[in-house]
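Q: Structure for this?
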Amino acid sequence: MEKHPDLPGDEARARARSRVLREAIEHHNYRYYVLDDPEISDAEYDALLRELQAIEESFPGQRDPLSPTQRVGHAPLDRFAPARHATPMLSLSNAESADEVREFDARVRRLLSRSAPLAYTAEPKMDGLAVELLYEHGVFRRGATRGDGVSGEDVTQNLRTVRSIPLRLRTPAKTPAPPRLAVRGEVYMAIADFQALNAARLSKGEPAFANPRNAAAGSIRQLDPRITASRPLDIFFYGVGETTGHRFRTQWEILQTLPKWGLRVNPLIARCEDAEEAIRYFDGLAGRREALPYEIDGVVIKVDDLRLQEELGTIARSPRWAVAYKFLPRQATTRIRAIEVSVGRTGALTPVAILEPVSIGGTTVSRATLHNQDEIDRKDVRVGDKVLVQRAGDVIPEVVKIIESKRTGKEKKFRIPDRCPVCEGVVERSEGEAASYCVNAQCPAQVRERILHFASKRAIDIDGLGDKIVNMLVEKKLVSNAADLYALEAKTLAGLERLGEKSAANLVAAIKGSRRPPLGRFIHALGIRHVGEQIADILAREFGSIEALGRASEDELTAVHGIGPEIAGSVAAFFREVRNRELIRRMEKLGVDPQAPARRGPGTGGPLEGKTFIFTGALASMTREEAGDAVERLGGRVGATVSRKTDYVVVGEDAGSKAARAEKLGVPMLDEAKFLKLIGR
Ligand code: IVH
């Protein structure tokens, strides 16, 4: 036992006891979560935890951030900090059939010039949320969502609340945990937990989550870790990112080693001698799918040998060495009771089938999209039809087809009305477009959807501004655009139904608190057509302010890497509209001040400071965007046209005229290998 001569006797005893307790609890966590083989009952485990809590409460000096009691209670955040991944988190290309897996295998072996069978790992593809966790010297330091693959959100405090995530790694003598370990995995919610959570939410009048994946993702992206802590989340790890001090040779070795460090790996993984074995594994798992306590949407098949993985490399954002062999989407049959038309923020009218509720993969489905009139006609969907509905990997269920043999002759055809169901305004359908639009920009449904989008989590993120409140504000004509929100006063709001004085004050405070959004989110919030989160971030980084973006010509916009003519046209058109410029000006007057992203590129003093790069042709190991990011991170910039001022032209495969021009001007050219060396990869 350690000696603490300066502590009074009972405190020293307490310290020794709490250490024993912490170690015991960590051991039992490992038995329970990783080995799935507990040695004690839940009640005994709870007793240990309670004893430890009691000691820590009596002796606050003995609190330890790594204690198993410290998984809750961190203060809420305003928003998540961005977190860049040291190596990008890739996505997977899909295979829909055994033959496509065989094609994948043939391609891989062709690329490797190999005729002998190739070994793969086969892993259940968890349907949840991808995260990366960083352990330094065995201590959990940081965790981030996948985000766009390059950069996600720092959700460390939330991940700490997931009990199957160890706060400290085990470090067995034979395989000590490495000094730096980035591990990747999928956070998910078990189906039973998801159902219980939804039942509880419904009984409290809160909306249910559509499916376990949404519930898991929503819980991890909670700004208040105490809420996350109350959600039953779990994790399976499946890979490593940047790691020092430990070399793995195979994916199988990774999967075998992670559990030794206390990191939970799905026990259903398998190592397969060849592609046929992986296909048989898939068939076997498909048969067990319904019986599993969690949702999986397929099998991830990976080349086992990591050296071969490296040799194969990646194209676009997916590795050449892995494929997701997907299960058929989940489907069920039910009847269409009615068809409603909903109006989106762009005015698009979407027909929605109102269904007799049916359970698909643990989710009750009562509405399904019919997309548009063409789809209705193509599928010949009528009110009263018995239909096959699917909830694909996607969240919005859709009607796949009608069951013709169940037709009675009483079904009624449906046409999208030529007047908007909400405002009775004119509905138009432009040539070559599938969707019909309500052209009245003041249509309350559009106004409502635009404001909801503006306030939504992934845009400005105004807490408490849900659809009920927005509905009411629009109905009472208190707001007709996003700027109006910032002019709202608590005394106007108090007294509206469902808003007391306190919640009115809270809402106004939340709106006021949102006046300094990151520029990218603000641009996203404006709801410009074709401008999603990622594009908005690119625009923010490139232009640095709303004024500069508003001034940009279509040519200047298209010159930005990642911005095509369609997006450029849509952005320019948005800022040409007086109404939109007015809206932004009013928001600024009311104190809205979007914050430019932290500077990167020139002026940040990196090793490539002052150097201009031009890319031509495709790189095998990364996308252009990733390459450009790497240059900017090191202080350089990426240009569009080759001139004498260009420092390097990076020449990939199928390079175009830029390479010829560089040659003519005598600008140094780099092949991919040299470029990678220059950026330190
Ligand atoms: S490997 C190249 N393994 O699927 C490596 N992914 O489309 C990419 N996923 O975002 C990931 N289970 O969230 C891998 N055993 C598994 C997985 C898995 C689920 C998810 C992951 C990723 C997505 C890729």
